[in-house]
Amino acid sequence: MGPLVVLAYSGGLDTSAIVPWLREQYGARVMCFAADVGQGAGELKGLVEKAKRSGATDCVIEDLREEFVRDFVFRTLRAGAVYARTYLLGTAMARPVTAAHQVALAQRIGAQAVAHGCTGKGNDQVRFELTYAALAPELQVIAPWREWTFRGREDLIAYVKAKGIPVQATLEQPYSTDRNLWHCSHEGGILEDPSQEAPEHIFLMTKNPLDAPGKPAVVQIGFEEGTPVSVDHVPLGPVELLETLNDVAAEHGVGRADVVEDRLVGMKSRGVYETPGGTLLHAAHRELEQLVLDRRTLRLKDEVALRYADVVYDGRWWTPEREALDALVTSTQQRVTGTVGLKLYKGSVTVAGRESPHALYQPSYATFGKDNVYNQKDAEGFIHLYGLAIKIGAGLEAVRREQDAVAAAD
User: Fold this and answer.
1) Entry pTM
2) Which residues are catalytic?
3) Whose CA is closest to 190, among 131, 117, 271, 293?
4) Boundary residue ending a domain (128, 144, 174)
5) Burial class of residue 218 in the structure, from the number of CB atoms within 10 Å of its CB (0-12 exposed, 13-18 middle, 19+ buried)
6) How far apart are CA 100 and CA 179, in angstroms?
7) 27-71: per-residue pLDDT in tens?
8) Which of 108, 112, 124, 358 is close enough to 292 for a disulfide, judged by CB 3.0 to 4.6 Å?
């Protein structure tokens, strides 16, 4: 009898092909595992039946939405992590929680191996396998894309059709789409040409900004210690809060990003992302931090954000490094409490006010009007000391020029 393998399963093209392939090549009994991270009921409907039709013994679906948003999305948001200047890490955050529960299932049922459908060119293979290594190093890892003879999606489409397994991908629209509660990513097909604009029909979450309402909307987002807790002053749990922001941002065409990024394996790739609610949360969180953190803490926070983005993107979630960064971020977020208003209009987001009980902005100091707290004469001594090195350097340079002039005259 072949090994019992737990496959991270989506029901898409790649994993639909992997089920019969594992049975043929390994003689494996395949248990499929699907994580509900908010990809929508449409993608999960009929998934168990489809997996069984493909040859799996069964398919387990776990609702991980709450854990995904609370423990992965909001942690990364509080860190301010953004990869490649614009990518808000939707896929990268979903992989470690998915892989962790896949491993837990494999351990519960006594499986000998875990498998995934990630290609040998992508980042997801690393995210899955570093999770396996951290949480269950004893399990065998099977990565069919690094073993089988199929050369591309065209071969896979032909293979699954021959097996009688229905898939959405076609030769005409061979896009790879990955959706969760935070975002939707699109790759492949015409998107592989970065000179071409993304066609409108690929977008699933956001309205075309040209078709968005002609009247702007204002939304108020509340935070407690860096964590989003309310929308328009109504307290909401993580999932409901993100769903609410997704709806309003999508209606106004907010959250689209076209990104040429550097994959972990070394090549550049092009992805088109929709992150409606996440775009609002990042904008609001940045503004609130700007109000309550001093400039040196902000600079430190910006440096940490870049490092945190790399940790998440590169699949190093289950590491002491990420835990240490979380501890630092938590310290910086103690006063990031307050409310930020955002105005949404045809794809744009602008600030419409911010307030916090911990605001470092004090009108009595910043005013251009009359005040009784700031002695402007004090600035004179400050500038003398602040510019002392410049003044000394300029004096030495004047002496050098004078000496050169004397030498030239002689």
Assistant:
1) 0.92
2) 14, 95, 124, 176
3) 271
4) 174
5) middle
6) 19
7) 999 999 999 999 988 889 999 999 999 999 999 999 999 999 999
8) 358
